[in-house]
């Protein structure tokens, strides 16, 4: 069982907006920044969002992140077929002194 | 270009040891904290360990504490993971990743990842 809680699956049709949630606690999301990773099938993860809501160079602005209290969200607008992947949230946990990941959300584009 | 290349994976019997390496290129390796992250077959990501830019600070997941040791050689631009007393549950793809954007380890994001190296622990 992961310290950060994500829905195991999400889906949407092309062009739609999809949101993936990530729930934690005061020792992780409540105290530290949240990062999001995208993992396409058979590949290494890729950084999508850092510091709650910042996009690395090259990441389309269709991807956005937000944080409120002990929860964070990843939003994908204008959904495309190539967005079909697993998405993970992560944050440092001050109580455990480790990085904690969410269990991952498998996004399906219908 | 900026790149991380892992090596050293393979099949090993329970209780034995293995050392993974991660060769960095294209950036100033000695300026960044480095992490190991693993992924068991069909499972999610699990953080394993981090080492600060100068090697002075190290943190480990509880699942590997006391068995795994992270280290680095900044003169060789290489990160290591010494894995002892291996268990079946250590079977996974092991990724090295660069920590960035945080300024401090607790705010690190993993912005560069290697391709991963598979470790299989089986008799």
Detailed description of the structure:
The complex is a heterodimer of chains A (110) and B (123). By secondary structure, chain A is mostly beta strands. Chain A is built from no helices and 9 strands. Helices cover 0% and strands 45% of the residues of chain A. In chain A, the strands form 2 sheets. In chain A, strands 1, 3, 4, 7, 8 and 9 form a 6-stranded mixed sheet that branches. Chain A has a 3-stranded antiparallel sheet with strand order 2-6-5, with no helix packed on it. Chain B is mainly beta and 123 residues long. In chain B, the strands form 2 sheets. In chain B, strands 2, 4, 5, 6, 9, 10 and 11 form a 7-stranded mixed sheet that branches. A 4-stranded antiparallel sheet of chain B has the order 1-3-8-7, with no helix packed on it. Chain B starts with a strand and ends with a strand. The chains are: A mainly beta (110), B mainly beta (123). Chains A and B meet through strand 3, strand 7 and strand 8 of A and strand 5 and strand 10 of B.
Write the layout of secondary structure elements.
The complex is a heterodimer of chains A (110) and B (123).
Chain A: E1 9-12, E2 18-23, E3 35-39, E4 46-49, E5 63-68, E6 71-76, E7 85-93, E8 98-101, E9 105-109
Parallel strand pairs in A: 1-9
Antiparallel strand pairs in A: 2-6, 3-4, 3-7, 5-6, 7-8, 7-9
Chain B: E1 3-7, E2 10-12, E3 18-25, E4 34-39, E5 45-51, E6 58-60, E7 68-73, E8 78-83, E9 92-100, E10 109-113, E11 117-121
Parallel strand pairs in B: 2-11
Antiparallel strand pairs in B: 1-3, 3-8, 4-5, 4-9, 5-6, 7-8, 9-10, 9-11
């Amino acid at each position: 069982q992961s310290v950060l809680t994500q829905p195991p699956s999400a889906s949407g049709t092309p062009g739609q907006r999809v949101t993936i949630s990530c729930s934690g606690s005061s020792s992780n999301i409540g105290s530290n920044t949240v990062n999001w990773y995208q993992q396409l099938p058979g590949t290494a993860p890729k950084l999508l969002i850092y510091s709650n809501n910042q996009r690395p160079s090259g990441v389309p602005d269709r991807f956005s992140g937000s944080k409120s209290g002990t929860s964070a969200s990843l939003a994908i607008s204008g959904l495309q077929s190539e967005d079909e992947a697993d998405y993970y949230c992560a944050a440092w946990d001050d109580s455990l002194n480790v990085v904690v990941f969410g269990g991952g959300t498998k996004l399906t584009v219908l | 270009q900026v790149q991380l290349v892992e090596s050293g994976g393979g099949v090993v019997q329970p209780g034995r040891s293995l050392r993974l390496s991660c060769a960095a290129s294209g950036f100033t390796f000695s300026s960044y904290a480095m992490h190991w992250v693993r992924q068991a077959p069909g499972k999610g990501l699990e953080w394993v360990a981090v080492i600060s830019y100068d090697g002075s600070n190290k943190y480990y997941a509880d699942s590997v504490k006391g068995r795994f040791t992270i280290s680095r050689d900044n003169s060789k631009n290489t990160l290591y993971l010494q894995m002892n007393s291996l268990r079946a549950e250590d079977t996974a793809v092991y990724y090295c990743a660069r920590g960035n954007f945080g300024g401090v380890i607790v705010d690190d994001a993993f912005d560069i990842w290697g391709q991963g190296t598979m470790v299989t622990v089986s008799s």
